[in-house]
């Protein structure tokens, strides 16, 4: 039982006092009932338009009626609270006879942290939670920005592909014509280059013949057959 020395030792080891808890609870109930009837008196005075500060018959009758109602309620409430207190002491805070508190537990039980420690821990947890929420908001913003950027990139890629496709389809004929023109110009340039090389070779041959004492102009290479025969005869004599 709670009044036994064993029960007191168990509760003392855990820094608990059942009777103190019950007394505080009963006092709290009494305070609540008092505040409730004070409010009831004020509201009744306002509804009946009675000045509670005035000493008249109506004010006294109202106070007497409220006291009677309060007495009836408190009488029933006190009986219930006494039964509740007895039940708590007999059953809720009863320590079984065979209960044994281990010595190690009794020695290692630490007192509960005070309110300041709890407040500091709660403040720390609150700050961490606030930081995590801010971080979550930032991550969500970054994720939305990446999603918008991805959508924009995909749209740009589709537009580029469509424009490129349209350009390819519309410029096939133009490109074919341009390539034909470039090929013609290239063939003409090659022919001109061949002509210049042939003329240069003929001039070089004429110069070599002059250097060997043969008066044979370079233009003779394009002359008549008789002139060519004469040229060959001169070469055999050399």
Q: Would you kindly provide a brief summary of this structure?
A:
With 238 residues, this protein is mainly α. The protein has helices at residues 5-13, 18-48, 57-92, 103-108, 115-211, 225-237.
Question: What topology emerges from the helices and strands here?
Answer:
Blueprint: H1 5-13, H2 18-48, H3 57-92, H4 103-108, H5 115-211, H6 225-237
Helix pairs in contact: 2-3
Subcellular location: Chromosome, Centromere, Kinetochore
GO cellular component, one term: nucleus
InterPro entries: Centromere_Mis12 (IPR008685)
Descriptors:
238 residues; mainly alpha; 6 helices; rod-shaped
Provide a descriptive summary of the structure in words:
With 238 residues, this protein is mainly α. The chain contains 6 helices and no strands. It has a domain at 5-112. It has helices spanning 5-13, 18-48, 57-92, 103-108, 115-211, 225-237. The longest helix is centred in the last third of the chain and has 97 residues, at 115-211. 0% of the residues are buried. The model is unreliable at 216-223 (pLDDT under 50).
Order of helices and strands: HHHHHH
Number of strands: 0
**Beta-strand share of residues:** under 5%
Distance, first to last CA: 152 Å
Summed over residues and divided by their number, the pLDDT gives a mean of 75
The helix count comes to 6
Largest sheet, strands/sense/barrel:
none
Low-confidence stretches: 216-223
Instruction: Tell me the structural class.
Output: mainly alpha
Percentage of residues in helical conformation: over 70%
Subcellular location: Chromosome, Centromere, Kinetochore
Protein name: Protein MIS12 homolog
Keywords: Cell cycle, Cell division, Centromere, Chromosome, Coiled coil, Kinetochore, Mitosis
Organism: Brassica cretica (Mustard)
